Amino acid sequence: MFDVPSSPPVAAGPFYASETFWTAAGVAAAVLVGCAAIWAAFRSQHPRRRLTCAVSHAPLVRQRIDGSLEIRHNGTPLTDPHLVTVVLTNPGRRDIASSAFDRGEPFRVRLDVPYAELLGAESCPSAAQAPPARVRDGQLSIGPGRIGSGTRITYHLLVDTAPTYDCRHSLLDVRVQCTTSPAPSGTWQTPLVRP
Predict the structure, then answer these.
(1) How far apart are alpha carbons 44 and 181 in whole angstroms?
(2) Is the CB of residue 59 less than 8 Å from the CB of residue 80?
(3) Prediction pTM value
(4) What is the dihedral of CA 143, 184, 188, 132, to 10 degrees?
(5) Cα(103)–Cα(169) distance, rounded to whole angstroms?
(6) Based on CB atoms within 10 Å of each CB, which residue in 17, 21, 71, 82 is the most buried?
(7) Closest CA to 149 of 47, 55, 54
(8) What is the tens place of the pLDDT at every residue in 65-96?
């Protein structure tokens, strides 16, 4: 007798009715859920913290002082006074805690000027407290202190001569971006003369 080749068996129903399909789909879903759980655990242990620092300056007097005008601050004569603005912004979703300042080292902005004086600080939202700041040897030191999520902190300084900027930090697990530019004229809002 002759053997007649037969065709392979054909599925009796749609592919999604097969047990093999549902087993494969279950394994794929379990792998996706597992990857998502690992990613979520990693993100919660290593949150993305960001800090931007923008430094700008503008001359206090638009024309060079020729000797007919003398500007002094606390008795110190200024030959080429400039107003410097340092803005720290935390655009991230997480706060930058005081403990993020490695070994308690402050965020530093070196200005390379012979005279610098901190005039004031402000924060937005206004309920946020600005980290402590001090000026010494032509360098602004900020912190350590908490910088809340969505907080913008502005420091105003008076310096003598046009500054050059150099930002240094030792913040842990924080991505820092520094930008510098001269401020456009008319950006200073605080009155310069006391009543």
Answers:
(1) 35
(2) yes
(3) 0.70
(4) 0
(5) 11
(6) 82
(7) 47
(8) 666 777 888 888 888 888 999 999 999 888 89
